[in-house]
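agent> call fold_tool(seq_1)
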Amino acid sequence: MTEAVESPATSRRTLLCCAAAVLAGGSAVAVTGCSSDSDSSSSGAGGGASSSGGGGGSAVDLGAASEVPVGGGKVYRDQKIVVTQPTAGQYKAFSAKCTHAGCVVDQVTSGQISCPCHGSKFAVADGSVSAGPAPSSLPEYKVAVQDGKIQVTKA
């Protein structure tokens, strides 16, 4: 003889707890996606930028230095680099990834590098935090201008 085995009914509380756990896990995935380190191979609006070499420490050509305004800067989104020119002829390069959540900064205005995600701001002169929630300065890269073109080396 076979017995029918009834499975216990799922309580509303169990169902809600499981749904909350799934949603919380999905949020963690969304936040992790924001700080992805994947590199784009297209040059997009970066001004015809190209990479010379394969690994870290190779120079990245970003285009004409004349595209970086004095007192401001330019974001090279595809390369995740921001180049500033605090004073005429002085160029600085930083990671364009915000130190708060890894979002890519989107603009340089009024002497500030701005992150669109949570409002962090960084100084164009040294990448230091001007307004949080970013916990630390943007990492600085080596920058050189040769033949009127910007070359940045990520360390």
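agent> call fold_tool(seq_2)
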Amino acid sequence: MMQCFNWDTNTLNIKTNTNKTFNFILKGNKTVVCGYSATGKSLLCNIIKRYQNSSNVQTLKKYNLDNIFILDRSNKEKLAEQNHKLIIIDRADLILEKADIDIINSDTDINKYLIFSRKPLGIYLSPNYFANLEVEDNTVRLRYLFNVRGWN
């Protein structure tokens, strides 16, 4: 069974049933993706949700998604309860409120975050942790906007 998110290497790998692969290397505990429309941000969340809710035995045998939590409007109250998870938030600018952002900002090494947003949210991060999605040869990767020494 493939662990989709590897906590030790900060990598997320998942393949869709259309052979599109998501291969992300997260730099730190929080990454904000500001990417363009139709690059795969919502697609990734929908695929993970579908796999997590699947009753298909082959899907369940293939992927271990136990350490991934997709945050949305219906489960926001569970944000503070998460422990040792990759928390993925799609359309964060539409669903996160100040209290949620405070929880994220105060989370030091308990969870990791992959946040899809179209505007700044007040999350404490160096510009080195902002990325766009890039697609090449049916593989979606993170392309970090900056890599400046001293910006931590």
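agent> summarizing second result for user.
The helical segments are 41-52, 57-62, 92-95, 98-106. Residues 43 and 147 are 27 Å apart (CA to CA).
agent> awaiting next instruction.
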